[in-house]
């Protein structure tokens, strides 16, 4: 009974922690749903995409290059480039999931998103991650993403152009907040600057979504460089 109460308490604590980002992801889901129907997807297809893929960045990229008939190889490769960052995210979070036994760790990774990873990393810095707490942040976020996609796809014609009412800024706004949560001074600024510069340059001169991988690699290289520089004796 005590263990069950603790699990419920952990779940509710996780739900409270993710609530601000749940509110923030709803406009993004509405935008994705509205965009997807303009590309020829039905509300059911758009909702299934959010439910099965559950990766906002790669879903938006897929819509950017969506054609009829769809180039599955192109869409799949673009999704791979966008989501390659999940390898680093899962590797980082995996070292903090000692309480996740057996398949629980792998099941948790299926629901890994940028926002969920960030909140889990913050939590791991002050307390032990538990499966119940992780479920508390993952489930509301997942349901909100899928549900808002369905609403956006169903009401796409009524929402109109997302940019006209500022909904298109919801995506970058969330990531700016997450990035600032990890701010640690000049080292963080160096990493962000290197990543942004590489992404902008590659986006300018290389077609496709290679700028995402370039930004990630440049940020990783900058992090390694600043880490080594910090470790050197003065």
Describe the fold and architecture:
The protein has helices at residues 2-38, 43-53, 56-64, 72-83, 85-94, 104-109, 114-124, 131-154, 156-159, 170-181, 186-205, 210-231. With 234 residues, it is mostly helical. The protein has two domains: 2-182, no CATH class; 183-234. Helix 1 runs parallel beside helix 3. It is globular, with a radius of gyration of 19 Å. The model has no long low-confidence stretch (mean pLDDT 82).
Précis, in short:
This protein is mainly alpha-helical and 234 residues long.
Distance between the termini: 55 Å
Q: Give the proportion of residues in helices.
A: over 70%
Q: What is the number of helical segments per DSSP (H or I, 4+ residues)?
A: 12
β-sheet strand percentage: under 5%
**SSE run:** HHHHHHHHHHHH
Extended strand count: 0
Q: Tell me, rounded to a whole number, the average pLDDT.
A: 82
Question: Which word captures the global form?
Answer: globular
**Cα gyration radius (Å):** 19 Å
List low-confidence stretches. none
Counted up, domains total 2
Write the layout of secondary structure elements.
Blueprint (H helix, E strand, L loop, with lengths): L1 H37 L4 H11 L2 H9 L7 H12 L1 H10 L9 H6 L4 H11 L6 H24 L1 H4 L10 H12 L4 H20 L4 H22 L3
Annotation keywords:
single chain, mainly alpha, 76% helix
């Amino acid at each position: 009974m005590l263990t069950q109460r603790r699990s419920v308490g952990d779940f509710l604590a996780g739900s409270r922690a993710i609530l601000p980002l749940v509110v923030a992801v709803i406009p993004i889901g509405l935008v994705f749903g509205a965009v997807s129907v303009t590309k020829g997807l039905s509300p059911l297809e758009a909702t299934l995409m959010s439910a099965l893929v559950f990766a906002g960045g790669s879903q938006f990229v897929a819509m950017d290059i969506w054609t009829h008939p769809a180039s599955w190889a192109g869409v799949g490769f673009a999704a791979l480039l966008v989501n390659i960052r999940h390898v680093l995210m899962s590797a980082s979070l995996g070292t903090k999931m000692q309480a996740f036994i057996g398949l629980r760790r792998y099941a948790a990774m299926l629901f890994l998103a940028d926002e969920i990873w960030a909140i889990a990393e913050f939590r791991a810095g002050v307390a032990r991650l538990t499966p119940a707490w992780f479920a508390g942040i993952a489930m509301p976020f997942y349901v909100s993403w899928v549900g808002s996609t369905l609403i956006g796809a169903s009401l796409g014609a009524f929402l109109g152009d997302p940019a006209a009412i500022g909904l298109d800024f919801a995506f970058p706004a969330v990531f700016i907040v997450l990035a600032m949560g990890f701010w640690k001074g000049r080292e963080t600024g160096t990493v962000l600057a290197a990543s942004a510069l590489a992404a902008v340059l590659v986006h300018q001169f290389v077609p496709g979504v290679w700028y995402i991988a370039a930004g990630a690699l440049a940020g990783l290289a900058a992090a390694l460089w600043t880490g080594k520089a910090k470790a050197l004796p003065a």
